[in-house]
Inverse folding.
């Protein structure tokens, strides 16, 4: 379990074309945010996301190269999802300036070089401590009947 408090970006993730959506959250921890945290937000009636598998399906080694099976490329792809979602937010992204959070860690990766300002990544199930904020995070999921609309 990793916990923290700080800036959190929550965004929808289209992981399986054309309508396989989930919700992910991005934040940082460690000295000056040296460790990225990318977690899936559990949403009722939506299967939990296996973030490493989703990243692998997107062929990240074409962009980031391979590091002898270390899952470096997959980690970089996931960090890029969070970092770019924060840097260029699309409509419906939830940006929280300061929120307490926890992550039930599924995987941790030490990167072979600094990527997007990070030296490591933790992934897993992400929760916001405040139930109201957690409801807002779940509402980021696009309406499954009308994917161009979001809840909330």
């Amino acid at each position: 379990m990793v916990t923290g408090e700080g800036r959190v970006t929550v965004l929808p993730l289209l992981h399986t074309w054309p309508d396989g959506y989930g919700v992910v959250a991005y934040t940082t921890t460690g000295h000056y945010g040296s460790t990225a945290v990318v977690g899936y937000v559990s949403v009722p009636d939506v299967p939990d996301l296996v973030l490493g598998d989703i990243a692998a399906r997107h062929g990240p080694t074409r962009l980031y190269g391979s590091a002898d099976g270390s899952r470096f490329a997959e980690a970089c792809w996931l960090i890029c999802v969070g970092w770019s979602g924060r840097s260029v937010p699309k409509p419906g992204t939830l940006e929280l300036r300061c929120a307490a959070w926890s992550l039930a860690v599924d995987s941790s990766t030490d990167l072979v070089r600094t990527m997007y300002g990070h030296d490591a990544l933790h992934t897993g199930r992400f929760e916001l401590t405040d139930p109201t904020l957690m409801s807002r995070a779940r509402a980021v999921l696009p309406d499954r009947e009308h994917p161009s609309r979001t809840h909330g």
Notes: The radius of gyration is 15 Å. Confidence is low (pLDDT under 50) at residues 146-152. The beta strands are 2-16, 20-29, 35-41, 94-115, 118-128. The chain has four helices and five strands.
